Amino acid sequence: MPAENTGAPINGAPIDTAAPAAQDAAKNVPAPASSSATPTTSEKLTAAQLKAKAKAEKAARRAQVKEARIAVPAPSPVQEKGAAGDAKGGKGKGRQDGQQSLGKGGHLQVHRGSVAGRQPSSPVPEKDVRSGIPDCFSHVPMAKRIPTSQAHKDVHPAVLAVGQQMATFALNDSISRLRATLLAFAKVIESYETPKGNSLSRHFVPHVLNPQIEYLTESRPMCFAMGNAIRLLKGKVNKFDIDTAEDEAKEGLLEWIDFLINERITLAEYAIARNAAESINEGDTILTYGHHRLVEKTFIEAKRDGKSFDVTVIDDPFERSGQELAKTLRQAGIPVLYSPNLGGLRPKVAAASNVFLGGEAIFANGSLHASSGTADVAMSAMNAGVKVIVLCETINFDRDRVSVDSLTYNEVDPERNTGDCFRLLFDNTHDKYITGVITEFESGGGNSPAQAILALLRKQEDPLID
To answer: Could you tell me where the Low complexity compositional bias lies (predicted)?
Structure first.
């Protein structure tokens, strides 16, 4: 008697009652009429059939690629994530957009294009900051800020900082730039190690010191005090014997830098202020231009000596540095008459007893290199019969070059350089408009004629190198 099928599992396995029906339906389906129909598993494919099959699959993939180029494909999850990252401020990693296509096997391929999900655009040309300068002034340099990433790999971090400060005029006057440069060079010397097979006297200057100098010069044209100090430093290095120990040479250079700062900057400022204060008499009216630290120290020193005098400050209409000087002098109890520009210069100069001017450099022919407007004050003073006294350290003297105009050695003001006009930072005052120069020398009360520049330098600089 046949057993009844109740659908219960046999040996724990379920019985699929739909399987026979599915098999009967599959038998009734007609085979495709195509010549390239896939043969049954019982048949073996010949070489010709395999080749025809591969050709058909390749044609199908090409058709899929063409359809994908026409249709706009939906963004992938990776692209959606990248777009969300850009929408949140672009903090995510940069992604690239581009054309999309289907590769082998129907996988989506991305051909990378522009960065950060933006369409490529033509680069915007950088504006030339010197475009407004006429060709006849094209030789005049200008300070520029150089990114630290573009600096030479051997430039010391301390020198990088000084270059940035000079380019932005955080370090402006010559002595401030000189002091910062020497202190930076001291750090370079401390971190220097002579490579094997070399000596400090032969390797340090060309391979270590020169890259520092080049970077500082590119940041802003070197002032004359820096040029003199670097020349003396190189002479000191070259005087070392080739067999001199590295530690001994480095210690000697560091001591020399300390000596230069103390003698030619710190003590020089004190000596000049004291010598110049002796030139101020009771009841004098002293006129000055802008703000120079030596002139300020001179007035403070004369006030400490108990002298009573008045000061007239003619300010640079662009820099406005004289405002700080006037404020300092008034706080010290010195009566000050402040003029914001050169207007009414003649009567103010005629009422003065002496004119005190600070200088950035003095050339071998006795001409003065100072901030723009100094020459106007000096010429007006000489025409009025008033003495013009210049205060300047000997480290700022240049015994190799002469200057007869304001275009040979100058700088373009980067803050006031437009397509319509530009401004020069310095001017040149001929020696005939200068009564005397006060330096740190004791002889003659420190007041020497401008033409005596070469004798002063020979007397003071030669012992520094020995």
So the answer is: 13-51
State the DSSP code for 451.
G
Could you state, in chain order, the average pLDDT of each consecutive group of 10 residues for the chain (466 residues)?
43 43 43 43 66 81 69 47 44 42 46 44 57 79 88 92 95 95 97 93 94 95 95 94 93 96 95 94 96 97 96 94 96 96 94 96 92 96 95 90 90 86 93 91 53 65 52
Rounded distance, CA 460 to CA 227, Å? Answer: 16
Residue 335 tokens, joined:
């009566």
C-alpha 176/C-alpha 188 separation (Å) is: 19
Q: Fill in the DSSP letter of residue 390.
A: E
239/237 Cα distance (integer angstroms): 5
What is the Cβ-side half-sphere exposure of residue 23, based on CA atoms within 13 angstroms? Answer: 5
Residues 301 and 445 reside in one and the same domain:
yes
DSSP assignment string, 23-78: HHHHHHSPPP--TTPPPPTTSPPPHHHHHHHHHHHHHHHHHHHHHHHHS-PPPPHH
By residue range, what is the domain housing residue 262? 142-268
Cα–Cα distances (Å) from 110 to 76, 106, 113, 427, 428, in that order, read 10, 13, 9, 63, 65
Whole-angstrom Cα distance, residue 318 to residue 426?
12
Mode of pairing for the β-strands spanning 96-102 and 108-115 = antiparallel
In a domain, 32, yes or no: no
Question: How many domains does the chain divide into?
Answer: 2
Angle 317-322-328 from CA coordinates, rounded to 5° = 160
Same domain, 308 and 361: yes
pTM: 0.70
384 and 444 inside one domain: yes
Three-state SS at 373? coil
Does 258 share its domain with 403? no
Residue 200 · residue 244 · CB < 8 Å? yes
CATH code where residue 217 lies:
1.20.120
| CA–CA dist 333, 350 (Å, integer) | 24
